[in-house]
Amino acid sequence: MTGSCQGVDVDDDEYAKLIRRMNPPRVVIDNDACDNATVIRVDSVNKHGILLEVVRVLTDLNLVITKAYISSDGSWFMDVFNVTDRDGNKIWDEEIISCIQKSLGSDACCFFPKLRNSAGVMPSNEPTFVELTGTDRPGLLSEICAVLANSKCNVVKAELWTHNARVAAVVRVTDESTGGAVEDPEKLSMIKDLLCNVLKGDDASRTASMTVSMGHTHTERRLHQMMFSDRDYERIGATEGADKSWPQVAVMDCSEKDYSVVIMRSRDRPKLLFDTLCTLTDMQYVVHHGTVDTGEEEAYQEYYIRHVDGHPISSEAERRRVIECLEAAIERRATEGLELVLRTEDRIGLLSDITRILRENGLTIRRAEISTEDGKAFDTFFLSEMSGNPVEAKTIDSISRQLGHMIVRLKQNPLLPSKSPEVAGAAGFLFGNLLKASFQSFWLVGSYS
């Protein structure tokens, strides 16, 4: 597995570093320009991956991007973001404003720290991360937790995504005996063998992998990289032209300006922009211009892109792959199914016990976020029946009885997103939105280079 974000080191020579030092990023945070959002303007020397990193900083602060205007042709990067907090309010908190300024207004962001390298033995001052990919199946997380518990490892933090019959997880663990990193090479080798056997399942055609890594990482960034590398975008049993609901992704040529145009319409949700930009960056595409607009339910994204080699999408196969990969990026962060949020005192083996109860009640985990802090466990699961159907009322009653003292939130979300409005052919869909965007993105007209 790669130890650094793809594309981060492009053109990262001494001259480029000098140019960035001479032209530090300029960040303007304006609470007067818009009635219902804080406007953040970022001007900087351009560099591949900078757009993704700026969006990452904003989303990591739990800010919601409601609109964005992107222009990064040539050597300069100029973006505008309308943001709110999770409650839809402007950003007035001086601590958050200061954090935005410090993160985006210096080399601390633009030229973001590289992700950690993989290794077999951990220095004691570095966290131990276990990265897993394999075939998804009911009860998988329960089995993973059982292996770690039996190996005397505590799960401190974890995130698991499932998509298209594949699963990826990043798990931070400590050694039960020391409370620190897992350093014993023999123990790590044993854990790797056990987890790989668990992950393989019955799918002989797809491989499973388990990697132990050192240092700090951005978990969600890694999950996108892992699932993309695992080709989760290859749909099982899908047929060309099959009727589908959200998301809708279309790719067309803008030959007069030598761009490819990507348009996405989907249900709006937190971190959507981050997710799509992760995949475009991993596929080595550069967003030169773009606009993002969200409503009460729908999100609209439009990007003018080229490959890092300067060329637009050149074949039908490449166009199809871009569509499939962006659909996967939108779908991975599933929020459908029964949302179960737990808070309780942390203890050894707690996660193994919780996942066992879920498995014994016939539930499969579609997505999970696990964390511990100051002796407390904070866990969120998105669940469905093993058949893929919504969780039945009697099953909800059963887990409520067994986990009732831990439950903070229990909400049934629709498993299938509402069907998107029908469009009168691809051309009408694309050009109608392009016309709409031309009025919103004032710099797009006549500014392409």
What is shown here, in short?
The chain has helices spanning about 15-20, 50-60, 95-105, 105-110, 140-150, 185-200, 220-230, 270-280, 315-330, 350-360, 395-405, 425-440; strands spanning about 25-30, 40-45, 65-70, 75-85, 130-135, 155-165, 165-175, 210-215, 250-255, 260-265, 285-295, 300-305, 335-345, 365-375, 375-385, 405-415. It is an alpha+beta fold. The strands form two sheets. The chain has an eight-stranded antiparallel sheet with strand order 1-2-4-3-11-12-10-9, with helices on both faces. The protein has an eight-stranded antiparallel sheet with strand order 8-5-7-6-14-15-13-16, with helices on both faces.
Ends apart, CA distance between termini: 36 Å
For the report, how would you describe the main beta sheet? Answer: 8 strands, antiparallel
Tell me the structural class.
alpha+beta
Mean pLDDT: 83
Total of DSSP H or I helical runs spanning 4+ residues: 12
Number of strands: 16
The neighbouring-strand order within the major sheet is: 1-2-4-3-11-12-10-9
Shape: globular
Spans with pLDDT under 50 lasting ≥5 residues? Answer: 1-11, 109-124, 239-243, 417-449
Q: Which oligomeric form is depicted?
A: single chain
* Radius of gyration from CA coordinates: 23 Å
Order of helices and strands: HEEHEEHHEHEEHEHEEHEEHEHEEHEH
Q: In percent terms, what proportion of residues is strand?
A: 25-35%
Helix content: 25-40%
Task: Describe the fold and architecture.
Strand 14 and strand 15 form a beta hairpin. Strands 1-2-4-3-11-12-10-9 form an eight-stranded antiparallel sheet, sandwiched between helices. An eight-stranded antiparallel sheet has the order 8-5-7-6-14-15-13-16, with helices on both faces. Mean pLDDT is 83; it is low at 1-11, 109-124, 239-243 and 417-449. The protein has twelve helices and 16 strands. Helix content is 31%, strand content 31%. The protein is of the alpha+beta class and 449 residues long. The longest helix is centred in the last third of the chain and has 17 residues, at 316-332.
